[in-house]
Amino acid sequence: MAIVLTNGKYYIATNKKGGIIKTEAIEGAQTFCSVNAAMRKIFRSPGKCKGYYPYDMENTAYEGSTKIRRRRFSDEEREIIYNKSGGHCELCGQQLLLENMTLDHIVPLSMGGGDSMENLQAACYACNQFKSNILPDFMDRIIKIFLYQTEKKCSKDMKLKIIHKLVEAL
Question: What DSSP line would sit under 48-79, residue for residue?
Fold first, then answer.
């Protein structure tokens, strides 16, 4: 797994003294072995890493040696998407602050989705990471997890058995 930190335009790199620098070249970016290691870098230098997020280079489409770049959305465009969602995560419904909102591609770029505002929705970081690129069966997976966990924890409760049957009918 090769993880880099990016804001969509620049990448985080480390100079010879161990300080943080920003580069446009993905080849010069510092790589991490896991998302947790990358997040530790963000937490250690929150000022210099504000707006940066972990990006898995191995699950990205490449043309030769150049990476297909994601579009960087302006603050105004982000606010439009935020307002369209009513300030909530479109996946779990959690209330979001504009600065904590991540942009989720409804149809993932890796599955041919566009990098346009019409293909974006507001999402919390956890849901966006969980969803990743598992469309179109994302909701089916969520339902299966929910049904399994409720059955496992409350198998003798008649109300939950009824809910289970209703959800299965979807």
Answer: TTTT-EEEEGGGS-EETTEEPPPPPPPHHHHH
Q: How far is CA 66 from CA 11, 25, 44, 104, in A?
A: 14, 9, 30, 23
CA atoms of 49 and 57, how far apart (whole Å): 18
- Domain of 102 in residue numbering reads as 75-131
Distance (Å, rounded) from C-alpha 104 to C-alpha 115?
10
Residues making up the chain, counted from first to last = 170
Report how many domains make up the chain.
3
Task: Spell out the per-residue pLDDT of the chain, length 170, in tens.
Answer: 578 888 888 899 988 887 888 988 888 888 888 777 888 888 888 888 888 888 877 655 444 434 456 788 899 999 999 999 999 999 888 999 999 999 998 878 777 778 888 889 999 998 888 887 776 567 777 777 777 777 777 766 777 777 777 777 76
